[in-house]
């Protein structure tokens, strides 16, 4: 299976992005994960811009979504809500075919952020008929550097949990 892993953070040293990158290295060899950390490249959504041709960055984004077998999303909480950049990216997909039957699973890189997670679950179960709410993997990585995150996910217990999450999501995508 080929997964696209979308980070809701645009920070260079984002813990969510670093965790998704670490996941791409841990994924069992029959699966691959490509990390998308460019929600900040997308223009602010407007139905006026949904005409053909789409803005280039949106066109590329929708092609990535179309090509993947499943989406993994991991995001920080901003002001007890979904960060604007991620919500904007999801808004671009709402009236399009790519997302409707796309399997989606959530990860999270903090012990906090449950208000955002509740909102994201609500949004994702609205935009996709295949949001796998029961598949969720969380590591407590707030304020860790990318190198520390690699080390944390390499710990045997965490490595097993990460690989198991990917395998279970792949099985869900194959149903
Ligand atoms: C503008 C802003 C608002 C935030 N609001 C919250 C919040 O409401 N609740 C919370 O737990 N953390 C909040 N945080 C902290 C981030 O969620 C936290 O640092 C997260 O781990 C950052 O993820 P990242 O490393 O992937 O960028 C906020 C951070 C910023 C920059």
Structure description:
The chain has helices at residues 15-26, 56-67, 84-93, 97-100, 114-127, 146-154, 156-174; strands at residues 2-7, 32-36, 70-74, 104-108, 131-138. α1 (15-26) crosses α6. β1, α1 (15-26) and β2 form a beta-alpha-beta unit. By secondary structure, the chain is an alpha/beta fold. It contains 7 helices and 5 strands; from the N terminus they run βαβαβααβαβαα. It binds flavin mononucleotide (FMN). Flavin mononucleotide is lined by residues 9, 11, 14-16, 76-80, 109-110, 112-113, 142. Flavin mononucleotide binds next to α1.
CATH topology: Rossmann fold
CATH class (first level) name: Alpha Beta
Bound ligands, named by name, code or SMILES:
flavin mononucleotide
Structural class: alpha/beta
Shape: globular
List the helices and strands in order: EHEHEHHEHEHH
Radius of gyration based on Cα positions: 15 Å
Instruction: Note the total helix count.
Output: 7
Strand order of the largest sheet: 2-1-3-4-5
Low-confidence stretches: none
The share of residues in helices is: 40-55%
What kind of sheet is the major sheet? 5 strands, parallel
Arithmetic mean of pLDDT: 97
CATH homolog superfamily: Flavodoxin domain
CATH architecture: 3-Layer(aba) Sandwich
- Proportion of β residues? 15-25%
In whole angstroms, the N-to-C terminal distance is 12 Å
Q: How many discrete structural domains?
A: 1
Q: Find the count of extended strands (DSSP E, 2+ residues).
A: 5
